[in-house]
Amino acid sequence: VGVADSPLAETYDPARLEVKLDAGAGFVMTQIAYDLDRLSAWADVVRPRGVLERAAVFVGVAPLRSVKQARYMNEHLPGVHIPDDLLRALEDAGPEAETLGTAQCVEIVSSLQEMQGISGVHVMGLGREEAVRHVIERAGLLPRPAATPARRAFRPSSTCCRHARASGSTTSRSTSPPTRCRSSTARRRRS
């Protein structure tokens, strides 16, 4: 189970993320981060609280295409903070702003690889899916290691909810195919 977090929000409260982890979250996807100094400060706050050990944290990243887009995101997307020097660089780049935005995103990914406790990135194309591949390739994240079969986290339990509650289990990690509920099978036999 994953949850969202906005670590760069002005009124950030780490206790809110801890409540989500206490509820069973196993990974965290953050809002897009452009300000690595502020993100590092956030990590320094949550690291002693054990957040980075309790859940995998994937930081949202997205290549910017223009200063207009950057200003819009800065003003209208909660939890997104684009540093002034990046805004100036995008403005100075003019028609080359998209190239600069991709290069800057690659730099962020590279820096995040060195940040203790960060498990990975969530690359967003913001309507330009080809940008995702450019960032992944240029950040040196390809080729990926051979994939292992994913665990089916949402496979139905091998027992019904009532029987799982009765046995004290609230979740099932069973990889076997689901079986019919014992009580529903018994009801059918009686009728």
- Strand fraction band? 5-15%
End-to-end CA span: 40 Å
Secondary-structure content class: alpha/beta
Overall number of strands? 4
Order of helices and strands: EHEHHEHHHEHHH
Strand order of the largest sheet: 1-2-3-4
Which value, in Å, is the CA radius of gyration? 22 Å
Q: Unreliable runs, pLDDT <50, ≥5 residues?
A: 152-191
* Basic shape: globular
Largest sheet: 4 strands, parallel
What would you say about this model in short?
With 191 residues, the chain is an alpha/beta fold. It is built from 9 helices and 4 strands; from the N terminus they run E-H-E-H-H-E-H-H-H-E-H-H-H.
Key phrases:
191 residues, alpha/beta, 9 helices, globular, disordered C terminus
Verbal overview:
With 191 residues, this protein is α/β, with parallel strands linked by helices. 46% of the residues lie in helices and 10% in strands. It has helices at residues 14-22, 36-46, 51-54, 67-76, 84-93, 97-114, 129-138, 161-166, 182-190; strands spanning 2-5, 27-32, 56-61, 120-123. Helix 1 (14-22) links the parallel strand 1 (2-5) and strand 2. The two termini are 40 Å apart. The model is unreliable at 152-191 (pLDDT under 50).
Detail the topology: elements first, then pairings.
Elements: E1 2-5, H1 14-22, E2 27-32, H2 36-46, H3 51-54, E3 56-61, H4 67-76, H5 84-93, H6 97-114, E4 120-123, H7 129-138, H8 161-166, H9 182-190
Helix pairs in contact: 5-6, 6-7
